[in-house]
Amino acid sequence: MNQDDLNIEYLPLQAELVKSAVAAFSSQDNVLAAVLLGSLANGTGDRVSDADILIFTQNGFHKTAESCFAHFEAGKDIFYSLNGFHNDNAYFKKYIFTDITSAEIHCLDVSESFNISKPFKILFDKTGIVEPRLTDDPAPKHEDFPVYTNGDQGLIWELFDCIKWMSRDNHELAKSYLKKLSDKL
User: Fold this and answer.
1) Average pLDDT taken over every residue of the chain
2) Burial, 83: exposed, middle or buried (Cβ in 10 Å; 0-12, 13-18, 19+)?
3) Which of 14, 48, 102, 141 is most buried as measured by Cβ atoms within 10 A of its Cβ?
4) What angle do CA 2, 45, 159 make, to 5 degrees?
5) 3-class state of residue 114 by DSSP
6) Please, what is the Cα angle at 138 between 136 and 140, to 5 degrees?
């Protein structure tokens, strides 16, 4: 996909994050595809929208992709990062940068069963693995996200999400999430 096809030129900071992630991962033989998800893929992103990127890998590369993440991180002023495994087949890193942009990069082994809901944009697909994973099922909603999944280490990310929702006047979502979070604490 041509970066101009993303239609996020009105968000140059997020556009640069997406471009940087593609540059960091696309040249690796064991990286097969990348997909942009969420509001940026939908064309409804705003200044505080994060770049949600899903990377499909093979041969266990998701466990050894540190050089790609380091390439992505190079030259960026990172305020906070969180990383971990969703499970044995899926690794993630989340970032908040000092310019208040943010990104989530999820690396999944192709053996991981994962369907892709709208909205999405295929950033690249070397082997045609994305199309069979497409579904008409609705994408998960923030209202349904589990809370405190990364313990105290993830609190900054969760509170940052609440701040983003409040900046969009979605106070009910933020309050509901904070109530669920306080029940876990």
Assistant:
1) 95
2) middle
3) 14
4) 125
5) coil
6) 140
Count of residues in the chain: 185
Could you identify the residue written with the tokens 């105290």?
152
Query: What is the spatial distance between Cα 12 and Cα 47, in angstroms, rounded to a whole number?
Result: 9
Q: How far apart are CA 110 and CA 105, in angstroms?
A: 15
Q: Which residue has the tokens 């993303």?
A: 6
- Find out whether 64 and 72 touch, Cβ atoms under 8 Å: no
What backbone phi and psi angles, to 5 degrees, belong to 117?
A: -100, 160
Q: How far apart are the C-alpha atoms of 54 and 133, rounded to whole Å?
A: 12
Token pair listed for 179: 């109530």
103: its two tokens: 């990104």
Question: Distance between CA 53 and CA 35 in Å, rounded?
Answer: 6
For the sheet containing 51-57, what is the strand order? 78-87, 90-97, 102-109, 51-57, 31-37, 120-125
Query: In the structure encoding, which two tokens stand for residue 36, read together?
Result: 């942009």
In the numeric block, the tokens 């280490």 are attached to 153
Give, as one character, the DSSP assignment of residue 142.
Answer: G
pLDDT tens string 63-117: 999 999 999 999 999 999 999 999 999 999 999 999 999 999 999 999 999 999 9
